[in-house]
Amino acid sequence: MGNFLIILKQEEGRQMPHQERFESLKVKHQTLEFALETEGQRPYPDPDKIHTLKREKLRIKDEMARMAPGA
Fold first, then answer.
1. Within 10 A of 32 (CB to CB), how many other CB atoms are there?
2. Helices (H) and strands (E) in the chain — how many of each?
3. CA nearest 32: which of 51, 19, 14?
4. Residues 53, 31: contact at Cβ < 8 Å?
5. Global confidence as pTM
6. d(CA 2, CA 22)
7. How far apart are CA 51 and CA 36, in angstroms?
8. Residue 8: which residues within 8 A CB-CB, separation 6 or more?
9. N or C, which end of the chain is more exposed by having fewer CB within 10 Å?
10. Measured distance CA(56)–CA(7) in Å, rounded
């Protein structure tokens, strides 16, 4: 999961076309959803990790909402 967050940070500084950025955010959102499901299925889920994943997922969802037409 740590490598995923590094990739997220690397892409934030790069300029990309609107649609490409939106698609990238969708993939990241889905990846975070999978990570949340995986963490939740562990015998002893890490509440701090879950909180971090949820916060990042919400940040991405908010950015996608701002990019949507009419936003």
1. 24
2. 3, 0
3. 51
4. no
5. 0.72
6. 22
7. 9
8. 28, 56
9. C
10. 13
